[in-house]
Design a protein that fits this description.
Elements lengths: L1 H24 L6 H11 L6 H12 L7 H23 L3 E2 L2 E2 L1 H4 L2 H21 L3 H23 L8 H25 L5 H28 L2 H4 L5 H4 L5 H7 L4 H12 L5 H13 L2 H19 L7 H15 L3
Helix pairs in contact: 1-4, 1-16, 2-6, 3-4, 3-8, 3-16, 4-6, 4-7, 4-8, 6-7, 7-8, 8-9, 9-15, 9-16, 12-15, 15-16
Length: about 325
């Protein structure tokens, strides 16, 4: 994992430097407080995966302009906005190892800063002069909002099906990956075939990324994760490992899991027992295998492009989604 991560970071180091500079250069807050709150989430060590995907997609599609980093940060602003909003909705305590913004300041300030970041993303999208890009950003905000609402509506719902879970993570996560990738193709004036290929790559990568992320809640400790282990369950969120286990648990085990979800102040020993149940019922292995299949489909979508350094990095990013620890 370390070797793969280092390989990716070495290959994209100039792009990451450009993205970091553009994040600050294009923020343009009118008031200092907005800049400080936005910076609290933006400059807390994010991976910059979404803007990086747009950058690589644009380069692979032959983009010739000088605004790659400027347009790429659209997707980090969108991502940061959703994190600010999600932490308020979920009552999250930590984000990227720091106190969540609504604790460092207050919920209204965090929410309104998230709104500002959404607006900045739309303003930068308008600067492309491409209606297709503006529509893409608008679609992302619509879908992500609806995904979060549906997840909120389904908190603690033991009848949540895998199909509904998949639709929620499509809206919550995959559409942002998909939009970043397709925007890279769109600003390059690519063919419909290439735009579709990157849309497919981004969709499958996003689903795999979220499934792998859901696994981290049950396989990585709090320090590495940057938030409390078991946070999803404490917030009443049923993710694929728990959904799969509930479908295979006996009556006694199912009752025990039900009580655990109903009492989110569960102990470390209770959480350890839950993890053992997930293992026993093959839920962790099943979730991982689903993620592996989506990575395979993501890489397959890019096979229309010739082998080159950009395609290799995109393949490596897909593989890294499965093995990362945070």
């Amino acid at each position: 994992m370390i070797d793969l991560k280092q390989k990716i970071l070495t290959a994209v180091a100039p792009d990451l430097r450009a993205i970091e500079a553009a994040l600050e250069d294009h923020l343009h807050p009118h008031f200092e407080l907005v800049g400080r709150v936005a910076g609290h989430i933006l400059f807390a060590g994010g991976k910059r995966l979404r803007p990086l995907l747009m950058t690589l997609a644009a380069r692979l599609c032959g983009y010739q302009g000088n605004h790659t980093a400027k347009y790429a940060v659209i997707f980090e602003y969108l991502h940061a906005a959703t994190l600010l909003h999600d932490d308020v909705v979920d009552g999250g305590e930590l984000r990227r190892g720091r106190p969540a913004a609504h604790h460092a300041w207050d919920p209204p300030t965090a929410v309104l800063t998230g709104d500002f970041l959404l607006a900045r993303a739309l303003s930068l999208a308008a600067d492309t002069g491409l209606p297709e890009v503006i529509r893409t950003i608008a679609m992302i905000t619509e879908q992500m909002s609806q995904g979060e609402i549906e997840q909120l509506n389904r908190k603690g719902d033991l009848t949540l099906s895998e199909a509904v879970y998949r639709e929620v993570i499509r809206c919550k996560t995959a559409v942002l990956f998909q939009g970043a990738c397709t925007t890279g193709a769109l600003i390059s004036a690519s063919s419909a075939e290439k735009v579709q290929a990157f849309g497919d790559y981004g969709f499958h990568l996003g689903v795999a990324f979220q499934m792998a992320d859901d696994l981290l809640d049950y396989t990585v400790d709090s320090e590495a994760l940057g938030k409390k282990a078991g946070a999803d369950l404490r917030e009443g969120k049923l993710t694929l490992p728990v959904i799969h286990a509930l479908g295979r648990a006996g009556d006694e085990e199912r009752l025990w899991i039900t009580k655990l979800i109903a009492a989110p102040s569960f102990t470390p020993d209770q959480f350890a027992r839950l993890i053992a149940l997930l293992e026993d019922h093959g839920a962790i292995a099943y979730t991982r295998q689903c993620a592996v299949e989506h990575v395979r489909k993501a890489k397959s979508a890019l096979e229309i492009f010739p082998q080159c350094p950009e395609r290799e990095v995109l393949f490596d990013i897909a593989d890294y989604a499965l093995v990362r620890s945070a």
